[in-house]
Fold:
Amino acid sequence: MGNDIETGQEHLPEYSYETAKSSNGMLEKPSSIHEVTEHDELGENERWPTPEEERTWQRVADNVPAKAFLIIVTEFCERFTYYGVSGIFQNYIQNKYKTSGSNPGAIGGGKHMATGLGNFFQFWCYITPILAAVIADQWWGKYKTILVFAVVYLVGDLILTLTSIPSSIRSGGALPGLVVAMIVIGLGTGGIKANVSPMVAEQYQRQRPFVRRLKSGKEVLVDRATTVQSIFNWFYWAINVGSLSAIATSELEHNVDFWPAYLLPTLMFVVCIAVFWAGRNTYVLTPPTGSILLKAMRCMTTGFKQSRAAKKAGNAIVDDAGKGSSWIEYAKPSNMSGSLPASVTWDDAFVDELRRTLRACKVFLFFPVYWLCYGQITNNLVSQAGEMNTGSVPNDIMQNIDPLFLIVFIPIFDKLIYPGLHRCGVVIGPVTRIFIGFILAAVAMAYAAIVQHLVYSSAPHYDHPGAGHNDISAAIQIPAYAFVAWSEIFASITGLEYAYTRAPASMKSIVMSVFLFTNCGGAVLAFCFNSITSDPHLVENFAVVSGLMGGFAFLFYACFFKYDRQSRDEERRKQQQQQQSFS
Structure:
């Protein structure tokens, strides 16, 4: 990442800071109207773009700051731990301990218990970020919140490791130990999740586009939005490299035992805390500003009440075209008559920020169905592989095909496909990218249904393979994992990016936690499917999930396709304002 970017426009004949001067010799004011900060000072071989350059040049990403990479490494270690322990939950819960001829196991609770507890764990891990976001915004800030919850996380890892030793499993301590560990780990990971992704993006402080001359002599227009997209691509890439820990833990459970399989990620989490703590003096830290969530709830309640009262009294607010204003506009102090209530502690700007936040959150309403699809790779597809021939490979190692595809394809999209589309003048908006991701997820589930039908059609156990494996290779699962991986590039990464870029600065943790909260919706939906997550009903399970995702994908696009156009219109208005400022 430290190398110069080798794409962009040809350099000007003579480069110096003097090129930014106007004809009368005075320094020309920058063309951008972006917010000016102390970090927007020009460095060596840099200058401000002209209005024409800012309007027409291809935009490229800046180098990712070293302090951001520290946080990315922290996330890698945390995800190594998370997927290392959770990746073997299905076998740990479903199968009995040390049973000859069976997949590895400990509790022997069956497929229903394994899938149910797995869904509970997912639900819990993604509801706790709301609590962590409030704590970070109100009292501790992101850095301290992450550090404290990381210690909680480590305690949960230790509980899981100690209760998975053979004597604990044989005495019945595995199940209660697992439940307690799930609760503690879920609390810890929630504290990290709500804050780590906005914190990594905050490490890049430059706000305004600028032109940089490369060693090759070319000039490129470096853009913040493109840089943030690149940061999230690498952040998600690190997540998936970390998730490969499930390969190691699957091998350990298969060839040794569960306690060393859980000890490995526990030790890695010690490294996670150490790496994050090492950057304590270099991070850009945003101080807590009070609980935005509680303030936002009061503001929305006021908007609803004021809107209803105004409409009943015939005093509805209308614009110049005679169109009625949104209910949130009634929460603006400027639209309230008389003295303001003591509960109104916000200004008009806060209401505008809240409106932007609500607009971003509406997009997330469709993500629970997507997470329902994604969750299949950690439970039902694992069980499906357990009904097939995997050779000497543990059945739960198959789920790692998904991160392997992501590790390969995220850099390809970041460095080749997206820049190539930009050079051709094709910019895929976030809503369109999410729609493509949803469609790919639906295709993945449809393919999984076909595979399950083939499993049930194979000897010797046909549609009741609980007694052993059917004669069909687990290799045919690979396309399902590939489609899920490609869907993540379009939907999941874009969701993270959208949550950060569309949220006001004061609400980024809250909006990110709302995005993560949609995983809870996926877990709740998964509970509804629990009755068909066992043989011989898994074909219906995958088929219904696929149809649901496909239908919601088109409904999503019908509702929000205009958001991409609105974003382009906003960008054009900014460019016009920039040009007018020089006229």
Notes: Confidence is low (pLDDT under 50) at residues 1-36. Residues 205 and 434 are 27 Å apart (CA to CA). The longest strand covers residues 210-213. The first helix runs from residue 51 to 56.
